[in-house]
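Hi W., the zinc ion complex you wanted:
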Amino acid sequence: MIKITDTHSHYDDEAFDSDRYELLERLLAEKCEKIVTLGCDIGKSRFSVGLAERYDNVYAAVGVHPENCGDVGDDWLEELKKLADHPKVCAIGEIGLDYHWEPFDRNRQIHFFREQLILAKELGLPVCVHSRDCTKDILDILREFRPKGVLHCFSGSVEVAEEILSFGMMISFTGLLTFKNAKKAVEACRIIPLDRIMLETDSPYMTPVPHRGERNDSGNLIFTAGKLAEIKGITVEEAVKACNENAERFFRFDRTKG
Ligand SMILES: [Zn+2]
Ligand SMILES: [Zn+2]
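Structure:
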């Protein structure tokens, strides 16, 4: 049985309210080596830390998502810093820029993104970066900071992938890689070295084929791993082993703080 590390999920989401704990227990017993669950605001980040406390192989990332930066209190950075001090917090995220839904406050998003990149650097934590409809701005900021980071749910071009790699960052793929219309992402995946790729579900979103349209959970990671193996011309076992090792190296799950 292959156990896969899910490097990006949202088990705080209300989509899991009815069966969150049974589901996580089953996934950890049968399908997942480790699960990283990310907060998108202060409350959700706190909830994610609670989940990480509850299970040995669940880890948390804490952060304010660009779509949520309008709703946090003035003390958000202090609160985030406190949460990030927890030994099971392995990254700052989900952070980034998202210009998809109008109206959005570009300057505020950039401010929040930069503050959290600075915080991550201060704390020696990697960052999980979200990018949607903002390629120029995100590349400009990442070029400046060159964080230890991952660009998640990659759907961009070969050129964007090359640029992200040149910053020293990782790239992770969701179920999007299995979509029929994901030609660009597949092309990009082909040129990304296997030691720079991680697997993620972004649960409950981005459900891979053949379960598209249903709620996603980490058990579906096998379909994305299968697609990755096909693109790289390797076995699923080889793809999973490489991605699991990349996740260990990137998040340093075994590090002890203090
Ligand atoms: Zn995202
Ligand atoms: Zn996400």
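The domain at 4-251 is CATH 3.20.20.140 (TIM Barrel).

W.
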